[in-house]
Known about the structure:
CATH class of the largest domain: Alpha Beta
Organism: Micromonospora pisi
EC number: 4.2.1.46
Family: Belongs to the NAD(P)-dependent epimerase/dehydratase family. dTDP-glucose dehydratase subfamily.
Mean pLDDT: 98
Structural class: alpha/beta
GO molecular function: dTDP-glucose 4,6-dehydratase activity
Bound molecules: nicotinamide-adenine-dinucleotide, thymidine-5'-diphospho-beta-D-xylose
Helix content: 40-55%
CATH superfamily of the largest domain: NAD(P)-binding Rossmann-like Domain
Amino acid sequence: TMAPMRLLVTGGAGFIGSNFVRQALDALDCQVDVLDALTYAGDRSSLAEVEHRINFVHGSVTDAAIVDELVRQADTVVHFAAESHNDNSVVDPSPFVQTNLIGTFNILESVRRHDKRLHHISTDEVFGDLELDEERRFTEESAFDPSSPYSSTKAGSDLMVRGWIRSFGVRATISHCSNNYGPFHHIEKFIPRQITNVIDGVRPKVYGSGQNVRDWIHVHDHNTAVNAILERGRIGQTYLIGAECELNNIVVVQEILRLMGRPDDWFDMVGDRPGHDLRYAIDSSKLQAELGWKPQYLNFRDGLAQTIEWYQQNESWWRPKKEATEAKYREMGR
Ligand code: NAD
Ligand code: TDX
């Protein structure tokens, strides 16, 4: 029998990474190392359930020596670590350049040096935005056209991965997923910010016109797609991940209000995000046809109800972050 695969997961104390680690330990025969800098967005308690089954390393992907030592020991690297919030990126782009660009460069140089398999996690935001009435959705062929320091540094990291595949034969795959929701999502993000506001008796805050559309996917489905790519994905390929759930922000807020027993109009319109992308939409036919992946969460309202329940039952996880998060938004005027 083969030895279990040794996985290095960067950003494993974040939202998607921590959900991935739990799922990977269930789904794959693997041993897991997590490298996470525990920035404001990282929380070791998100891994409490699996703490005894992983090797947690507190360190940064910007530290080439730590990265190299961990990559050397691994078989496969799944690279989630990033600065992930658009609103922060327009206040101070600097950590986005460091983590998303320099951090990914360090990962690439190490997987090249030690000939290790890499899966690079990216976002649909690198393709820019769509008009509301446009038929076109994003595909693997869509051109990069990022709007923010967040999405442009993610696009830069993706382009490096492509260059390292072509020039050095690095064994990498890339995925671009749409907006995730689910448990352990940082409360700076739209859905958990509004759920925790309503719990606190505060009206949700919708940016600009509220007509902006996001294509929602449950974090569990994002991670089953990542597992499928790790197991069956073709080296060098890019896969788009999405679950065909386009909704505008007002519709999402009204679903939250209905599920939490508040009137439909119990929210405030606030100022807009600079450069705010209008619409994202993913065509995931390649992933579905090639790898046979399908989302399991087919009903957004059910997934949302489950997520609301998680925030109601896990106040000790998010409460310590609430005051500082809202203080940042007060500075931004939103
Ligand atoms: P997150 O902000 O919740 O988590 C990021 C994690 O990375 C945190 O644990 C943080 O401590 C860690 N980190 C940050 N800088 C680091 C550094 N220099 N070294 C090591 N660790 C560092 O983000 P998320 O929503 O879980 O996103 C994870 C990945 O998925 C990102 O690459 C993001 O671009 C991508 N993505 C996110 C979404 C989404 O909807 N959230 C959608 C598509 C793609
Ligand atoms: O209070 C809010 N009010 C509001 O209307 C917040 C925080 C957001 N919004 C809007 C902005 C967006 O149109 O809601 C939408 C979603 O906002 P975010 O949760 O900040 O996500 P978004 O900017 O779409 O980016 C997310 O999806 C793609 C993740 O944060 C990224 O990491 C991922 O790449």
